């Protein structure tokens, strides 16, 4: 298997992609085929040999990942081959396979895609614990968030807003602050250009802030604590600036405020039930679309070292993710071959553009226009079963009709999210046909969101429009389509995505 290996402690530049042996598992571990791995601040500290633990060399960094189970140790009963999971591995995630202790692995709900899953636990888990358990944040309170466009900072912006607080986001560039605004910040402060204390006084009418969330440390800690309201809570989250500030303790006395340490890893270990409860709440918010992490960039394993370097250089806004392998394309391709009969393109209404194009070169004339809506397609149990067989993913929610009657809210099995996703390719060929080309492949999916599960026997159809067309130097065309799959009788769509196709 391939892995990005750290062979000597140092900077990201010395990491190398190598072919290496698959990890072996002990009786309490599982082996995971990694689909995606989040990039986190400690990854850089670990490869520099500056973290709380030092793995034995050589090792791959990457402590937060999603994937599927390949095999399980003999004491592991809660997981089986093929299950979708997310895991906190400490390190080892920048690789095609990783061995993880089963108690650090969690089932991944099918509504959450692998890329989102790989960037969830660490940032949202930390910030939710800090705001809920440690700050006991109340609706209407004012929170100042330092490093607000970073991983944990931006998660804190989203969560504090969701929990009813007034959010003041601080960051070093206006570009970063614009993203904080998009995520719900009420006020922003560029702490490299503006006077932090003066700005806080202005925004809060001299009342000060109730909570400070500080993952940065350094120079801003003291002005922040001096700007606190009576009974404030100062959350010590991290020291991204590399500088642990020394705070005069008389400030805590004068302000009547608490200085509270946050250590999410220890919380998860020492209070596992509370921590799981938090995770459940976060997952529900994600499924409901209330939390959506800002993704800076998706990197491949080959350029994963660049992701670590970008994080070091303060370029990353929100989360950087490493995608391991070409798994989306495989899923789509497989399901087309398995279960989809080929259909003729349908005719569109007169106000839509033609679905048959005489040549790929004319596509760009139709950017922004609607391609139309397909015919309805029934999501039969047979189709769902075929998909389970093709993918070896036999989760009971899809195939066990008796259990579904008993335990699922509608009493019906539901289609795998990836089945719905792969049907987008099938629908696609109903909406568009291009003459005089050599080949036409659906090659990727961007910004995919699984919004409503599709129950068995419901009817679904797709609407699509041309979002963009890029002409490549080799004569090929890259086509970006905005697609939405709806369920008959339901307001919310099942799936929305940007589908990318290559036409030669
Ligand atoms: N306590 C816990 O349980 C816990 C859990 C997770 C993370 N953490 C800690 O929280 C801190 C932030 O983690 P993160 O994942 O949010 O990291 P991140 O994504 O890299 O964000 C850190 C932010 O800090 C700011 N910053 C200021 N000076 C910096 C410097 N010299 N180098 C890098 N960034 C600098 C940057 O924002 P600007 O450019 O806008 O200033 C950056 O966006 C880290 O120290 C991490 O170890 C603690």
Can you characterise this structure?
The protein is of the alpha/beta class. The chain has 3 domains: 2-119 and 296-323, Quinone Oxidoreductase, Chain A, domain 1, CATH 3.90.180; 123-266, Rossmann fold (3-Layer(aba) Sandwich), CATH 3.40.50; 327-503, Hotdog Thioesterase (Thiol Ester Dehydrase, Chain A). The protein has 16 helices and 23 strands. It has helices spanning 41-47, 114-117, 121-134, 151-162, 174-182, 196-204, 221-226, 250-255, 264-270, 272-287, 304-312, 327-339, 381-391, 396-399, 401-407, 417-431; strands spanning 2-5, 16-19, 29-38, 64-72, 84-88, 97-101, 105-107, 142-145, 166-171, 187-190, 209-214, 228-236, 258-261, 295-300, 319-323, 356-357, 370-373, 377-378, 433-434, 440-450, 459-471, 477-487, 495-503. The strands form 5 sheets. Strands 3, 4, 5, 6, 7, 14 and 15 form a 7-stranded mixed beta sheet that branches. A 6-stranded parallel beta sheet has the order 10-9-8-11-12-13, sandwiched between helices. Helix 7 (221-226) links the parallel strand 11 (209-214) and strand 12 (228-236). The longest helix has 16 residues, at 272-287. It is globular. The protein starts with a strand and ends with a strand. The model is unreliable at 329-352 (pLDDT under 50).
């Amino acid at each position: 298997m391939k892995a990005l290996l750290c062979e000597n402690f140092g900077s990201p530049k010395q990491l190398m992609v190598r072919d290496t042996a698959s990890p072996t598992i002990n009786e309490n571990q599982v082996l995971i085929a990694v689909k995606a791995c989040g990039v986190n601040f400690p990854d850089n500290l670990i490869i520099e040999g500056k973290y709380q633990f030092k793995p034995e060399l050589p090792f791959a960094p990457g402590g937060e990942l999603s994937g599927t189970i390949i095999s399980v140790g003999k004491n592991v009963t809660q997981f089986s081959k093929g299950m979708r999971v997310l895991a906190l591995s400490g390190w080892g995630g920048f690789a095609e396979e990783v061995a993880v202790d089963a108690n650090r692995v969690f089932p991944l709900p099918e509504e959450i895609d692998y890329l989102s899953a790989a960037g969830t636990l660490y940032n949202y888990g930390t910030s939710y614990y800090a705001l809920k358990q440690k700050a006991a944040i109340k609706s209407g309170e004012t929170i100042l968030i330092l490093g607000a466009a970073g991983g944990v900072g931006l998660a804190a912006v989203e969560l504090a807003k969701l929990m009813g607080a007034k959010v003041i986001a601080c960051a070093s560039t206006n570009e970063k602050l614009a993203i904080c605004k998009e995520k719900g910040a009420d006020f922003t402060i560029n702490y490299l250009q503006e006077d932090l204390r003066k700005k806080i006084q202005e925004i809060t009418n001299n009342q000060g802030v109730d909570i400070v969330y500080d993952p940065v440390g350094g120079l801003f800690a003291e002005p922040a604590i001096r700007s606190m309201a009576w009974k404030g809570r100062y959350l010590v989250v991290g020291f991204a600036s590399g500088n642990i500030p020394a705070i005069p303790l008389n400030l805590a006395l004068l302000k009547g405020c608490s200085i509270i340490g946050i250590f999410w890893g220890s919380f998860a270990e020492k209070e596992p039930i509370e921590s799981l409860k938090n995770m459940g709440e976060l997952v529900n918010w994600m499924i409901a679309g209330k939390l959506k992490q800002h993704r800076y960039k998706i990197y491949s394993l080959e350029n994963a070292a660049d992701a670590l370097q970008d994080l070091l250089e303060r370029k990353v806004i929100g989360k950087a993710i490493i995608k391991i392998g070409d798994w989306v394309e495989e899923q789509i391709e497989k399901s087309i071959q398995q279960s989809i009969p080929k259909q003729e393109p349908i005719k569109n209404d007169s106000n839509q553009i033609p679905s048959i194009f005489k040549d790929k070169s004319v596509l760009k004339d139709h950017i922004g226009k609607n391609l139309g809506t397909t015919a309805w397609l029934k999501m039969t149990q047979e189709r769902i079963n075929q998909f389970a067989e093709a993918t070896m993913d036999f989760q009971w929610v899809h195939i066990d009709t008796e259990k579904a009657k008993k335990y699922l809210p509608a009493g019906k099995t539901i289609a795998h999210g990836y089945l719905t996703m792969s049907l987008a390719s099938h629908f696609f060929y109903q909406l568009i046909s291009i003459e005089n080309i050599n080949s036409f492949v659906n090659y990727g999916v961007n910004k995919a969101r699984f919004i409503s599960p599709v129950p068995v026997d419901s009817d679904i159809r797709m609407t699509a429009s041309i979002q963009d067309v890029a002409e490549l130097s080799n004569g090929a065309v890259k086509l970006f389509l905005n697609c939405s799959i709806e369920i008959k009788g339901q307001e919310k769509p099942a799936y929305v995505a940007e589908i990318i196709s290559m036409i030669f």
